[in-house]
Amino acid sequence: MLGHHYTHSFLETAVASVNAGCNLELSYGLKNNVFMHIPQALAMGNITLQMLRDRVRPLFYTRMRLGEFDPPAMNPYSSLDLSVVQSPEHRNLALEAAVKSFVLLKNVRGTLPLRAQDLSGQHLAVVGPFADNPRVLFGDYAPVPEPQYIYTPRKGLEMMGANVSFAAGCREPQCRQYSRAELVRVVGAADVVLVCLGTGVDVETEAKDRSDLSLPGHQLELLQDAVQ
Fold first, then answer.
1. Cis bond upstream, residue 113 (ω within 30)
2. Model's pTM, two decimal places?
3. Strand order in the sheet with 192-195
4. Which intervals hold domain Glycoside hydrolase family 3 C-terminal (predicted)?
């Protein structure tokens, strides 16, 4: 609210927030946050002790429902150790979730799905800045990726036994420098072409908005060259 000039100080913001019913502040990384001024607002009579109790009560009620105050023995997750991390069961579940979350907008002449038994006699070209770059495949607020567990489009197709050629065209999502010759050379000899484009956290994240929805840099040119 301070940044939008609704209030003039953190103290005013704290008073307005509490009075409006806000009971939680996202203040990670801030040494001087808004709700640290609540004691001053209380001393000045801008808010009451009963109001604070009313705001705090649902926070602790939620924590109790989540089991934060239960004995460890009552928590079914307390018996888990690091062996469950990247276990086969969890990786299979992640694969199932990925398969079921695909959104197919158009499937001209039944091009998809690509079946492993049909790929051995075909030459595939996988191109674009997202074709073989594990780092850019994760969005904002994602965990720190562990490269050994990441399957890029190129790696996944190669594991299926396909004859795959690869050309990034441009090395990063911004696609400032584009090598058309590299792309045309790989695409020209292919039976099937997969073009992997997008944005990623290098282009847009929280507090890094874009003014339009266009593909960044030369990505649209890359796509047009691959189609032609």
1. yes
2. 0.73
3. 163-167, 123-127, 192-195
4. 103-226
Give the per-residue pLDDT at 121: 79
pLDDT at position 124 over 90: yes
Boundaries of CATH 3.40.50.1700 in the chain?
106-226
Residue type, 151: Y
Distance, in Å, from the CA atom of 194 to the CA atom of 189, rounded to the nearest integer, reads 13
Closest CA to 94 of 43, 149, 54, 141: 149
Q: In the prediction, which pLDDT does 63 show?
A: 95
CATH of 106-226, one of 3.40.50.150, 3.30.1250.10, 3.40.50.1700, 3.90.226.10: 3.40.50.1700
Q: Is 121 exposed, middle or buried (0-12, 13-18, 19+ CB in 10 A)?
A: exposed
In a 3-state reduction of DSSP, which class is residue 76? Answer: helix
Q: How far apart are CA 224 and CA 105, in angstroms?
A: 19
**Is 123 in a helix, a strand, or coil?**
strand
* Alpha helices by DSSP H, the chain: 10-20, 38-43, 49-65, 88-100, 116-119, 153-159, 180-187, 219-227
